[in-house]
Amino acid sequence: MLRRTTTTNRAFADPHDLITAVRLGLRQLQYRHDALDGCLTGTGFLRTPR
């Protein structure tokens, strides 16, 4: 999922820049429940509401 957003067509200056971009992308992804549910469904796991 991050391949299509945060890290697309980007040259990273150093490892710290890469780490920052990945963390930002993961932080944004955690609020996209539809994307997370789709990934879990594709693996056969089901999300149970709490």
Provide the residue-averaged pLDDT: 76
The helix-and-strand class reads mainly alpha
* Strand residue percentage: under 5%
Shape: elongated
Query: Which ranges are low-confidence, i.e. pLDDT below 50, for 5 or more consecutive residues?
Result: none
State the end-to-end CA separation. Answer: 25 Å
Order of helices and strands: HH
Instruction: Work out the helicity level.
Output: 40-55%
Q: What is the number of strand segments?
A: 0
Largest sheet descriptor: none
List the total number of helices: 2
Oligomer: single chain
Q: What is the CA-atom radius of gyration, in angstroms? A: 14 Å
Write up what this structure looks like.
This protein has helices at 15-29, 33-43. The protein is built from two helices and no strands. Helix content is 52%, strand content 0%. The protein has a domain at 15-42. The protein is mostly helical and 50 residues long.
